[in-house]
Amino acid sequence: DGRLSWTEEEGISYIMYVNDEEVSAGKAYNFAGLEPDDYAKVHVVSTRDGYFSSDKSNEFYVKKLAKVTGVEISTSNKITYTISFTKVTGASGYIVRYNGVEYPLDSATNTLTVIGELAGGDYAITVQAISSGDEPLIDGTKKYNYVNGDPSEEKAFTKLSVVTNIAIVNEVLTWTNDSTAVVSNYQLQWAAKTDAEPSWTTRALGD
User: Fold this and answer.
1) Taking a C-beta distance cutoff of 8 angstroms, is the pair 190, 202 a contact?
2) Average pLDDT over residues 169-180
3) Sign of the dihedral defined by the CA atoms of residues 132, 133, 134, 139, in that order
4) Which of 74, 132, 187, 203 is positioned for an S-S bond with 92, CB 3.0–4.6 A?
5) Lowest-confidence region among 76-80, 108-112, 122-126, 188-192
């Protein structure tokens, strides 16, 4: 995920090199510039005042996970929302960011069901492939670990606002629409008080 680890000793400083260029004096490094499926060579050198620097550590490689694609959202009842996406090879999990909340998923899962009423407004979803980095992999002579992929492109959608100010004036049903998006149709619901189940009628705007 861009955070490396090694055994530290008291009084020793450490410098990380990526592709033989000094990039950081700490354990964190952002591999944002690395393209998916490209390798970056990494090694670490220890330093201490009054001493020569150590030889470089064993070299290892990191490989960036691909960006998640195919992000979609669907709903059948306006309360339960299902987010789906295409899995990424090598990912140990995913983070779905939706409505200001992060939802972690394991590597076997590429759908997320969210239950809850949304207020009217504009929303966006992103999904990011995550690497645990625990077990190194082998590609020919290279030993490497995956690092997190970049977040997917945003999947934007708009939830229409709740219709308000419903009234019957001179036998005409009226209401107020506060949505900024264009409404293609309304669904009207009515039923007799004695009906066990309400009957639905859908009419296009202007009918």
Assistant:
1) no
2) 74
3) positive
4) 132
5) 188-192
Q: Give the tokens for residue 32.
A: 């944002």
Q: Is the pLDDT of residue 206 over 90?
A: no
CB atoms within 10 A of CB 40: 19
Residue 170 vs residues 167, 173, 192, 206: alpha-carbon distances, Å? 10, 8, 20, 18
* Strands (DSSP E) found in the chain: 13-18, 21-24, 39-47, 60-64, 72-75, 80-84, 93-98, 101-106, 111-115, 121-130, 137-139, 142-147, 155-159, 164-169, 172-176, 185-190, 199-204
- Name the pairing type of β-strands 142-147 and 60-64: parallel
Neighbours of 148 (CB within 10 A): 22
Question: Are residues 64 and 100 in contact, defined by beta-carbon separation less than 8 angstroms?
Answer: no
The pLDDT, as a whole number, for residue 94 is: 97
Name residue, tokens 């987010």: 83
Range of weakest confidence among 21-25, 122-126, 197-201: 197-201
pTM: 0.68
End-to-end alpha carbon distance in the chain: 55
Collapsed DSSP state (helix, strand, coil) of residue 107: coil
135, amino acid identity = E
Cβ atoms of 105 and 91 closer than 8 Å: no
